[in-house]
């Protein structure tokens, strides 16, 4: 028996859904969901993929690479060239991303950043 599943949504816990949705909207170009609000915000992709951001009281950001508070989720985004990697990183940092001191990959090929709520994600040169 083979299951036929497609990914429909990814939801991230965070303290401020609208703010985190705005960060990812700038980073990905996805469209804001029209019913986004202070408790739950979302972004839509044309093929139906939905990224949601839900308010969590007493949210604790991941402490990656330390596992005191596990990373909870990890997303990877692709870029085409090393120049794209540098430019994308610089723009994301300007928009509020962080860059942990620990970088486990060759920085010419990949970078680990954190979104404004502390979720780690990678930029990867394809």
Rg to the nearest angstrom? 15 Å
Instruction: Please write the string of helix (H) and strand (E) elements.
Output: EHEEEEHEE
Q: In percent terms, what proportion of residues is strand?
A: 25-35%
Structural class label: alpha/beta
User: Helicity range of the residues?
Assistant: 10-25%
Mean pLDDT: 92
**Oligomeric status of the shown chains?**
single chain
Largest sheet: 4 strands, mixed
How many beta-strand elements? 7
Work out the helix count: 2
Which strand order do you get reading across the main beta sheet?
1-4-3-2
Unreliable stretches (pLDDT < 50, length at least 5) are none
How far is the first residue's CA from the last residue's CA? Answer: 34 Å
Overall geometry comes to globular
């Amino acid at each position: 028996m083979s299951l036929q599943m497609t990914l429909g949504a990814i939801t991230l816990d965070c303290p401020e859904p609208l703010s985190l949705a705005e960060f990812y909207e700038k980073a990905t170009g996805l469209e804001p969901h029209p019913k986004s609000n202070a408790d739950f915000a979302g972004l839509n992709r044309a093929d139906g993929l939905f990224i949601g951001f839900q308010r969590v009281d007493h949210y604790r950001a991941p402490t990656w690479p330390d596992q005191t508070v596990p990373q909870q989720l990890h997303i990877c985004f692709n870029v085409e060239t090393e120049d794209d990697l540098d430019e994308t990183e610089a723009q994301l940092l300007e928009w509020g991303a962080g860059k942990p001191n620990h970088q486990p990959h060759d920085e010419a090929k990949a970078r680990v950043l954190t979104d404004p709520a502390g979720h780690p994600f990678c930029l990867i040169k394809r």
